[in-house]
Design a protein that fits this description.
288 residues, alpha/beta, 5-stranded parallel beta sheet, 5-stranded mixed beta sheet, 11 helices, 10 strands, elongated
């Protein structure tokens, strides 16, 4: 008779947020697979629970190799509990590979629901929560990161991202470029911890704020793209940018505002301005 795989949510900060069933599952497991066994030890000490079964590490570096071993234990009837450093397993953490393998073997998979940084940040952001999508971590390379952001520049749903603190300033700057500096967002750091902070504002302002350095676990929530209320051709976009420039705005700011007003990615307005400028130069060079 097959065993059971239990995905156990762990606190994202405050240890008192641990669900009551977590201690029960850890105490009764035949095998506990932990992303970091040292963190597991600190968690069990805080909960006052003794793990009776075998403890193994299960992290990104050994996930592929250890999955067959855990599946074998499940097929043999073991109750395997999977925990990650914080939050729900498999949500930008190890777990998906094991769940997929267990399902393929017709092994029951259940969960101990726990705190989620995704939902907590979304709720605290002050942005629409009726429809959202979780994008996880963005690529580390600047070009790949910007490309990924441009793919969702027209996404109407609220976007949720995880990010490392030392990359936050670059990421927010890339978001401002891809989505526009006026798009609203919220940077949620150290959720449920002593120094919890939620910084809300336009992406342009948040990027400038993050340039000074930010610490802690970071979740970024970004407003979805505005509904396109009118269809503007390239000539009209260029004209509106020119009007704002003549009024004293810098071109970069003018493009951002026009893009926001038209519900378009900033890149589309920028490309229209550049094309118009190149066409004007070509016309001037061909003049007698």
């Amino acid at each position: 008779m097959n065993g059971i795989l239990v995905l156990a949510g762990t606190p994202i900060g405050d240890i008192s947020d641990a669900p009551p069933r977590l201690a029960q599952e850890l105490a009764g497991a035949d095998v506990v697979a932990a992303e970091d066994t040292r963190r597991l030890r600190r968690l069990t000490q805080a909960l006052g629970v003794q793990v009776g079964g075998r403890v193994v590490s299960y992290f990104e570096g050994n996930e592929a190799a250890r999955t067959p071993e855990l599946v074998e234990a499940l097929v043999g009837g073991a109750r395997v509990v999977l925990v990650t450093d914080a939050g729900m397993p498999s949500v930008s953490d190890p777990g998906y590979r094991l769940v997929a393998a267990a399902v393929e073997k017709d092994i029951k998979v259940t969960a101990v629901p726990g705190p989620s940084a995704v939902l907590t940040a979304l709720a605290l952001s002050g942005l629409p929560v009726d429809r959202f999508c979780f994008e996880g971590f963005l690529p580390r390379k600047a070009g790949e990161r910007l490309s990924r952001l441009r793919e969702v520049a027209d996404e109407r749903r609220t976007l949720v991202y995880f990010e490392a603190p030392h990359r936050l300033d670059d990421t927010l700057a890339a978001m401002a470029e891809a989505f526009g500096t006026v798009r609203r967002a919220a940077v949620c750091r150290e959720l449920t911890k002593t120094y919890e902070e939620v910084k809300r504002g336009p992406l342009g302002e948040l990027a400038a704020w993050a340039a000074e350095g930010v610490r802690g676990e970071i979740t970024v929530v970004v407003e979805g793209a505005p509904e396109k209320t009118e269809q503007l051709d390239a000539a009209e976009l260029v004209r509106r940018v020119q009007v704002r420039e003549e009024a004293g705005e810098r071109r970069k700011e003018a493009i951002a505002v026009v893009a926001a007003e038209a519900g378009l990615p900033k890149r589309e307005v920028f490309d229209a301005v550049v094309a118009a400028k190149n066409a004007a130069r070509a016309g001037a060079s061909q003049a007698p």
